[in-house]
Amino acid sequence: MYAIIIEKRPLLLWKEKKYALGFYIKSIISTMLVLILVVFALSLTFKLADSNIDSEKMKVLVQVFKKNRLLLVFTCLTAGITEEIIFRGYLLPRLEILLKNKNLSVIISSIFFGLIHYGYGTSIQIIGPILIGLVFGVHYQKYRNIKILIICHFLWDLIALLVKTGQTQ
């Protein structure tokens, strides 16, 4: 409502580009593979440095999600939709207009994205989302399609939480 009433602009400034189904599938798969590589490298770095990866807050959430799969899926869905609309759809284009710099706008929006994960309690749970935000930000600038990122975000969170809760069988 802020974008429409105060800014008098649409929420998503960049017109959504449409692609063939094959592009969506390839884009989702390739983006997920990039995320796996980036987060694997980050996790390995933290493990080699003997840094704490798990937080108490995440342990509590995992216990809640173990008892309620529907809540787990709902959380992943709402996080994917809202966070992508806010950080890639809303913030990224506005930062690019304000800063007149594509790279800096991706970096700043990614840092903000990482910082909202501060409450989980460990530095990897901030740095990981910053790196994920960089991947998503570059993708959104290049392809201008928020749906792909929403799907990737949802799948990333879902897979991560299913692995953490041991519900992958």
SSE arrangement:
Elements: H1 2-7, H2 21-48, H3 56-67, H4 69-99, H5 102-115, H6 124-143, H7 146-165
First-last Cα distance: 42 Å
Biggest pleated sheet: none
Mean pLDDT: 94
Q: Return residue spans where pLDDT drops below 50 for at least 5 consecutive residues.
A: none
In terms of DSSP E residues, the strand content is: under 5%
> What would the principal axes of the Cα set say about the shape?
globular
* Rg calculated over all Cα atoms: 17 Å
Instruction: Tell me the number of strands.
Output: 0
Helical/strand content category: mainly alpha
The number of helical runs is 7
Q: Provide the succession of SSEs.
A: HHHHHHH
